[in-house]
Amino acid sequence: MTRLSLAALRAAGRSPALDRGALRTGIVHLGIGAFFRAHGAVLTEDAMLADGSAAWGISAVTGRSPRVRDQLAPQDGLFTLTERGPGARPTRLVSSIREVIAGPQDPGGVLARIADPATRVVTLTVTEKGYRIDPRTGGLDLADAGVAADLAGAAPTTPIGQLARGLQARQRADAGPLTVVSCDNLPENGALTARLLAGFADALPAAEGDALRSWTAANAAFPATMVDRMVPATTGSDLDRIEQGFGLRDEGAVVAEPFVQWVIEDRFAAARPGWEAAGARFTGDVRPWEAAKLRILNAGHSLVAYLGLLAGHATIAEGVADDRIAGAVRSLIHSEVLGTIALPEGLDGAAYGDSVLERFANPALGHTTAKVASDGSQKIGPRLLSTAAAALEAGREPRWSALAVAAWMRHVVLAGPELDDPLAGALAALPAGGPDGRTAVPALLRCDVFPPDLAADQRFSGLVAHWYGVLAAAGVDGLSGEATA
Ligand code: CS2
User: Fold this and answer.
1) Of 436, 421, 442, 428, which is closest to residue 478 (Cα–Cα)?
2) Would residue 307 count as lying in a domain?
3) Mannitol dehydrogenase C-terminal domain: which residues (predicted)?
4) Does the Cβ of 92 fall within 6 Å of ligand 1?
5) Is 18 a domain residue?
6) Which of 196, 320, 367, 403 is most buried, most CB within 10 Å of its CB?
């Protein structure tokens, strides 16, 4: 079957929605994975279609592997989005990505795009671990080998290194102000990105660091955003099915749930796409949106993933169809999270919780428990530990967030060196001990994932140890005797 490309479309009498001859790069995107293709790339195309602009074409940059470049370059950046589940619309072609640059292989290309005056926005979806956060300080991890190499002047490969070196090049080119939009599931992701960049500047020779800091303060903005859409990894059989329906072979196809949401802090340093016409919400304060999403949806997702894996469920939908697991997620949301967060005005927390469970139950999505369970050391903190700390502060038991932490610990111990996590090596080296958790729980509580205050709180550690013992003795069956909401 013929591969998707501009020429193949033309030969078939079809055309992309955007006028590709007129499209110019206005956005550089770092981290071109499935999520951005199903979210930011689509909303950017819709924004341009709404107002007829051609100024927001995307130059997308791959992370470590050039795989997405190899998928999209022969296709002129074109790919399809296929929605799965209730309300799914037909497969659509997305044409907002003008080019894909392999970041590590072409660092000069990345810096040149960031330094181009036509670029006004840099967006990021580099996942939690991409930021290289030092868990002890919350700042940039200067001990990380990639960060250290970027600081030493090598062609940058980490996202913060690419951003810092790109901004320096932009200053040299006098290319004008720019907005950096983080789209990762981390609290206050805009301020975080600014802080990590400042950490990079601080570690440069003094004069160079000062120049970067002052140019950034005067010319860059870092709005916070909340992004939401469940996007599983595309499988080989997805590609075959999409090819049948679309009529051309798309190696870069993505699948996603129909739901999509983007809440963006209205704080830009220069022009931006009219994303509101594509359904994005602009607000002065993203924090309540982000807390609801991280602590309800993402926390619930992680809990389903860890308990689901323990119970032998391959997908999130199978996990949440298991009443023992769904009950635990409802308890986490209703008895713990909703009492500890300030909700965005107009959002009904209980209804939001129910809608999240319905989205998890989407049987057509095939979102795997293994995928959601990956990188737990980076996800537990933003998703669950703030809830535990807030419950303790309010004098309440963090019973259900402790269950989620214990389920993660059980997963860590059972997976051993096979764990899919940047800290896999360090975690596997900890003593696992026996099934009662007397060794594993205190050892894991001392790892970098847990703030020392929380790890030292005996109410919290006692609950985690309790749940670890329950799960080790009886697996998810052990939850049956425990009250759920
Ligand atoms: C998931 C998220 O993989 C994960 O950790 O919890 O990717 C989740 O699907 C999205 O944040 C939904 O918006």
Assistant:
1) 436
2) yes
3) 285-426
4) no
5) yes
6) 403
Q: Which residue owns the Cα nearest ligand 1 atom 9?
A: 230
pTM for the complete prediction?
0.97
CATH number of residue 404's parent domain: 1.10.1040.10
Residue of 129, 185, 229, 289 to test ligand 1 pocket, by largest number of atoms within 8 Å of CB: 185
In this structure, the answer to whether residues 346 and 259 fall within a common structural domain is no
Closest ligand 1 atom, residue 185 Cα: 11
Last residue of a domain, one of 250, 266, 283: 283
Final residue before a domain boundary, out of 283, 308, 332: 283
Q: What is the dihedral of CA 381, 158, 42, 97, to 10 degrees?
A: -170
Evaluate the CA torsion angle 38, 43, 49, 52 in order and state its sign: negative
Whether ligand 1 lies within 6 angstroms of the CB of 34 is answered as: no
Tell me the pLDDT tens digit for each residue of 234-256.
999 999 999 999 999 999 999 99
pLDDT-above-70 percentage for the chain: 99
Hey, whose CA ends up nearest to atom 6 of ligand 1?
298
- Calculate mean pLDDT across residues 264-285: 98
237 and 303 share a domain?
Answer: no
Query: How many domains does the chain fold into?
Result: 2
d(CA 152, ligand 1 centre) in Å: 34
Q: Is the CB of 178 under 6 A from ligand 1?
A: no
Ligand 1 atom with least separation from CA of 227: 13
Q: Which residues constitute the domain of residue 254?
A: 6-283
The secondary structure of residue 404, as a DSSP letter, is H
